[in-house]
Design brief:
CATH architecture of the largest domain: 3-Layer(aba) Sandwich
Shape: globular
CATH topology of the largest domain: Rossmann fold
Number of strands: 8
Radius of gyration: 17 Å
Number of domains: 2
Helix content: 40-55%
Oligomer: single chain
Strand order of the largest sheet: 5-4-1-6-7-8
Distance between the termini: 7 Å
Number of helices: 10
């Protein structure tokens, strides 16, 4: 096989976590008497880390750094306890992971979600499937910065060009391109197919098992 490893984004790619994230943020907004948002709105808030999501969720009148930081801490407190209440893996994901393991394909998760929560959700939803799960520890290393993706590549013992990077957003496709990995988008996530293609997706999957054809 040309490709020997796969790096997956988490939210919108492996799992549908939209409702848990939205519920946690709306709880914070409600307690502060700020306007809440619909699940559809949150589709466009997700992807650049939870701190960024908090900023997008707050009213413009309360969007200063102090308010963002305070609400981010509150949101994390809410979300930490409820991050797997409604979150589910997408149909076909487990079958795909089983196939990849049976064919000795190395797998990791790389998310802009905090490292703590990325590891917690990955362990809860996909025990023993992934070599590693890497989330955000430093804001400057957030996708589309390829640094962490390249660290994962090295830990896998693979060249970047031997790795498929799978995600649901333009940021994921940019990350793949920046890391010299094969960019594959998914149509079931939070962003439209057009965004994926515009940002460098070489192919877009309509079902998880479609990845097997690329391998």
């Amino acid at each position: 096989m040309k490709f020997k490893g796969v790096i997956f984004d988490l939210d919108g790619t492996l799992v549908n976590s939209l409702e848990d994230i939205a519920d946690a943020m709306n709880s914070v907004l409600q307690n502060l008497n700020y306007p809440m948002h619909s699940y559809d709105d949150y589709q466009y808030f997700i992807g650049s880390g939870l701190r960024n999501l908090v900023s997008k969720s707050l009213p413009k009148t309360h969007n200063d750094e102090k308010s963002i930081e305070s609400c981010y801490r509150l949101m994390i407190e809410e979300y930490r306890d409820a991050c797997t209440h409604k979150t589910t893996s997408y149909e076909g994901i487990i079958e795909l992971l089983d196939y990849l393991i049976s064919n000795n394909i190395k797998m990791s998760v790389f998310s802009n979600k905090s490292d703590e929560l990325t590891k917690k959700i990955t362990a809860a939803m996909f025990s023993n499937y992934f070599d590693s799960a890497v989330g955000l520890t430093t804001e400057s290393l957030k996708k589309p910065n390829p640094t962490e993706a390249l660290v994962i590549s090295k830990s896998m013992g693979l060249k970047p060009e031997e790795i498929i990077f799978v995600g649901d957003s333009g940021i994921d496709m940019q990350t793949a391109t920046n890391a010299n990995m094969f960019a594959v988008g998914v149509s079931w996530g939070y962003r439209p197919k057009e965004e994926l293609i515009e940002n460098g997706a070489k192919q877009v999957l309509n079902h998880p098992l479609d990845l097997i054809q690329i391998l």
